[in-house]
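Recap from last week: sequence in, structure out.
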Amino acid sequence: MRGEYENLRLLLLDDEQQRLDGIDRRLDALPETLAESIESANRTGGASRLARALSESTTESLEVAVRRRPEAVVHAVFPVIGPAIRRALVEALRHMAHDLDQALADTLSLKVLRWRFEAWRTGVPYAQVVLRQRLHYRVEHLFLIQHQSGLLLDHLSAPGVPDIDADAVAGMLTAIAQFVHDSVRAEGAAQLGSASVGEYRLLVSDGPEARLAALVRGVPPSALATRMDELSEELQARHGKRLAAPPDTAGGLLEPNLLADLHQAQPVEGERAKPRLRWVMLALLAAALGVMSYRLWLGWQWSQQVHAVRADLMRWPGFVLLEASSSRRGELRIDGLYDPAGGDPGARWNPGTKPSGQAMHIDWSLRPYLSLEPALVARRAARVLAVDSTLINGPDAAGVLQLTGTVPFAEWYRLRHGSQMIPGVTRVDLSKLDYRGSPEISSLVARIEAARIGFDTAVAPDATAETTLQSLLGDVERLQAQAANAGISVQLHAFGLTDEPGGSLVNRDLRMRRAEWLAQRLTPVLRPPARIAVDLDTLSALEFHGITRAALIRVDLQPTGSATP
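Predicted structure tokens:
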């Protein structure tokens, strides 16, 4: 059976098996065939199509590689990036040193003095004047030279400059660059960056296919070399391999606006006429007069500053100026008295600050005292009473300080039951100070304290007692709800009253039993922190109620969380 099965499998699947074996062989040979296909595309002119087909995939692959293995990518490009960074740093430091050397060379010259006078006259910063005056140059010729052959690809000249043999200049630059490359042994490829040719400055920027050279008259800034490199990169990106084409087919590579981009139409430093001696003398005289006027103006400004400080201190609350003296401009001594409630005036002007104009240093000699100015008394009272200053009115001529407004109950209670000694205040009037929810709570308290539960005999209520008791229970519940919202703890005191007949011991026992009866009826409706207590000191604690048999309630309101007396 096994042999028959193998024969049947060969008959049915032999073609498919051969096709799969062929696919496996082609997959094994894929690296070799893929390389041959790419080489064939390069030879037959299909490289551009292949590059376009692989550009997106190559870019995405590089992005994935940078995200996943950044260190490997850095190690791979390090041999290229390292020399480029070092070259950029060397060029930047060289340009900075050149500019610094030029600035130091002209530090004490008449030209620098003239620039400083111009900066003072126009109000322009001195650095900007120097930069504007030194950047006098003109790009007269621009050459584009083929890198390998040394042939001139294109040439631009500024209007009005003498003609020049551009081909000869191209050959000369190529020979010099080749000499530098062959003779100077430096790390990487040695290139000619700049040179001085008589009254001209030669700037060279080398690209992969072409060399861009500029012949500049005057003193060009260091940024011009950077602009040359950028322009060379733009030409390489724009024209590409056309720069390697023979000169007869590569003309018109430099557009006229490129020269205008590099050219600055200002007179060259050496072409300006020197000022005459009389103008120099007039300038020196004007400078002397300016210095004198400036010093007089500084003195006047200082006197105005001192006057402004004196006027401000005279308006300072609680401050008494004794003396203000100045030994020299910029320094001031102040002697005076100050009330701490008005604040320290020395904190207004820290050393070196400018209240107006020049910098001012003030030497303070201050002694504290208590001022009775109403504004300071009110400010001091607000701090002592720990209340908002908007609640305070006065004090008036009699020294009465009035508090008006609405505050939380805890603060109202503290002010009612506390006492503070405030300098300049004879009495604190709290009659117009109220707490939040006061009208409703005061009305309920009045109704509760006005209720009387009458008794016919010892502890037997009369006919109206039940109605009065139900109304009292409702008022107590409403009072607890209002008090909870206002942060108030309700304390109830139950009292019993008796008529005159009977002995003192009998009446005391009746008062206690009637008070306890009322307390028991009110206890079920009380919610913490509300409490009720039975008070036996009826005669001393209550006003005279006549001859009556009754029980009543007195209400004591306290801030929530305070200790019960």
